[in-house]
Design a protein that fits this description.
The protein has about 625 residues and is of the alpha/beta class. The protein has 18 helices and 32 strands. The strands form eight sheets. Strands 7, 8, 9, 10, 11, 12, 13, 16 and 19 form a nine-stranded antiparallel sheet that branches.
């Protein structure tokens, strides 16, 4: 079924028992988000909140909350889009299988967005304060749009062809924003909207931004797709929706998506920044308040019977995990054509996506010799870190396909076992210092600032991986409670962090680097702790060792490679850092880190009370 509106989509989901209505009064301030998190975790249905406190508009969530539902939403067009991707990879496929690709020209036609003179979205006008004000976490700075479709155009080449559609969060209320007149724009590093704004500033032109909310689900997916700069998200949305994207042409302004439920039209105020945030984000921590551009609101439109869709982010997995899977399924086959020699790349959702990237490459330079150390893998790793949003990766672990043809990046425990048995810490660690990392990652020393680590391994297994703690292990003072995380990985409790390494001491206290160095200096390469290839210094070893997800989340979201990695018998040779014993990662929470997301206990109590037998939320989780 090709949806023409969100209302039609919601009705279809309900008819097929993929959606449940909640008619009880629900507050968009914390309650709706708390319900969404529980229903997603339980693998539950999409939700339609019909009685939202303080607004006339119903809210919908969890539309993409399961892989089964994602497949259902795009059941009529997903295969056609896959065929278009295959044709992009190999255009001769159509010659070999003409029947299979017979409908491809029609799908390609849907990729041409078109102008229209009018559309449902402009039927009515409202104000920002009358929109649903979703607050997901207690410290959020105000109400946010969490499924926005933010539309801009290249000032040099106005029009649909060079446009950009991205999902950049929008703060509707709070902080210093003038009510109903100003809203906050937040976009991370390496986003095309920044390119457009820079061009507008250089040309001395107003930077116009339109924000769409709702409409057929294809537009939401298009807004998060990491398409190459210059490739139209509107075209992708049309192919996935099964119909050309309709844009209302407006004199003197940007076009408006005709089939959206809401549209906010405005212009960025030149030279003005205001604090945006905090906001509970998808790494599982708050992104803090920082100066970001301000949008002067000119019009707020909505269609008849408009529905406000939303999602809730937090520590993975959440609903946006499904977006990641859709992206991987559709774009994964393209990776080898963009990055020669690379078989597969996997951004690990459990680690917050950008903090940890796994890859399988190949060593092809000298096939007549046995490869004893990474060569081409390093070239491929650099190529990965130079490719679009992959450049935001903080840790990149890359293996060689020929060492194990069955290696699966989605079997993460097995992949780490493969790497830990082969990686030589004296040569296979490659740091990139004083560089950029994801805007939402607060493990570095400043906004967008941190370091990266490439771990490349090739060849036969060289190391055994310990699976038990020997009684002979002795830890230095202040370190305790050793726990096995997985074969070859040990977690120990460290002292509470007092100050980060980049801040000067004011009272003679030690910093995080000194704690780590003291730990490593307590051992030699001959000690039993080196049976573990990796040692994690953490706040709660039991928590880290309880699950693979806990290990990935704690280790890779709380570690800045250049500052928080040390090792037993560490050395520097010709500016290359390595260690002869265990690699030690400081994955404790540091004073400069953003707070971990936690629910308001009172809200939790209210929501759980509504879920008892006979309550309005009974049976949803």
């Amino acid at each position: 079924m090709n949806y023409t509106s969100l209302h039609q989509c919601v009705h279809d989901l309900e008819r097929h028992k993929h959606l449940v209505r909640i008619d009880a009064p629900i507050d968009a301030n914390l309650e709706a988000a708390a319900i969404q998190r529980r229903v997603f975790a339980a693998g539950g249905p999409a939700l339609l909140f019909t009685n939202v406190v303080g607004t006339e508009f119903p809210m919908a969530s969890n539309l993409f909350g399961s892989w089964e539902r994602c497949q259902f939403l795009f059941r009529s067009t997903y295969a056609a889009v896959e065929r278009l991707v295959q044709l992009k990879i190999d255009p001769t496929s159509a010659l070999r299988s003409p029947l299979k690709y017979a409908t491809a020209p029609f799908s390609a036609l849907n990729m041409l967005p078109r102008y229209v003179g009018d559309g449902p979205v402009v039927a009515h006008e409202t104000t920002i304060s009358k929109l649903p004000q979703l607050v997901s976490w207690p410290r959020d700075g105000g109400g946010f749009v969490t499924l926005p479709q933010v539309y801009t155009e290249d000032p040099r080449h106005p029009g649909l062809k060079r446009s950009n559609l991205g999902m950049y969060r929008i703060q509707l209320t709070g902080n210093d924003y003038v009510p109903d007149e100003e809203i906050g724009l937040h976009y991370q590093i390496h986003r095309s909207i920044g390119v457009h704004q820079r061009l507008a500033m250089e040309r001395g032109e107003p930077f116009r931004v339109n924000i769409f909310v709702g409409g057929p689900p294809a537009m939401n997916l298009a807004a998060v797709m990491p398409l190459p700069e210059g490739m139209s998200e509107l075209g992708f949305a049309g192919a996935l929706a099964g119909r050309r994207t309709r844009m209302i042409r407006r004199a003197g302004g940007l076009p408006i998506y005709a089939d959206a439920d809401f549209a906010i039209v405005g212009t960025v105020i030149p030279g003005e920044l205001k604090p945006e945030g905090p906001f509970g984000d998808h790494l599982g921590y708050y992104s803090l308040a920082h100066p970001f551009p301000v949008l002067k609101v000119e019009k707020v439109y909505h269609r008849r019977n408009a529905i406000w869709p939303f999602t809730v982010v937090g520590r993975p997995p959440q609903e946006d995990t499904m977006f990641g899977r859709l992206i991987h399924e559709l774009t994964g086959p393209i990776i080898p054509t963009v990055l020669p020699g690379i078989k597969e790349v996997h951004a690990v959702d459990a680690a917050g996506v950008h903090p940890l990237l796994l890859a399988i490459g190949s060593e092809r330079y000298m096939p007549f010799r046995e490869v004893e150390r990474p060569q081409e893998l390093l070239t491929q790793a650099c190529a990965i870190l130079g490719q679009g949003q992959l450049s935001l990766a903080k840790f990149l672990w890359i293996a060689a396909e020929q060492d194990d043809a069955k290696l699966d990046l989605h079997d993460i425990a097995k992949f780490f076992t493969h790497m830990l048995r082969r990686a030589d810490w004296t040569r296979d660690l490659h740091f990139l210092t004083e560089t950029t990392i994801d805007t939402l990652d607060y493990s570095g020393s400043d906004l967008n600032a941190g370091s990266k680590l490439i771990v490349a391994a090739v060849g036969r297994p060289m190391f055994d991986l310990a699976t038990e703690v020997l009684s002979s292990l002795r830890l230095p003072d202040g370190f305790s409670d050793p726990r096995i995380v997985m074969p070859g990985v040990l977690a120990v409790r460290g002292p509470k962090c007092r100050r980060p390494s980049f801040e000067p001491s004011t009272s003679g206290d030690s910093d995080t680097t000194e704690d780590l160095r003291r730990f490593c200096n307590s051992f030699t390469a001959a000690d039993s702790i080196n049976q573990f290839r990796m040692v994690l210094v953490v706040d709660d070893p039991q928590f880290v060792s309880e699950s693979l997800g806990n290990f990935l989340w704690v280790t890779f979201t709380r570690t800045n490679p250049a500052a928080d990695i040390d090792g037993v018998e560490a050395f520097t040779h010709q500016k290359h850092w390595g260690c002869r014993g265990a690699l030690v990662l400081d994955a404790r929470i540091k004073p400069h880190h953003a707070p971990v997301l936690e629910e308001d206990p009172e809200v939790t109590k209210r929501i759980e009370a509504m879920a008892v037998i006979g309550g309005p939320l009974a049976g949803l989780w």
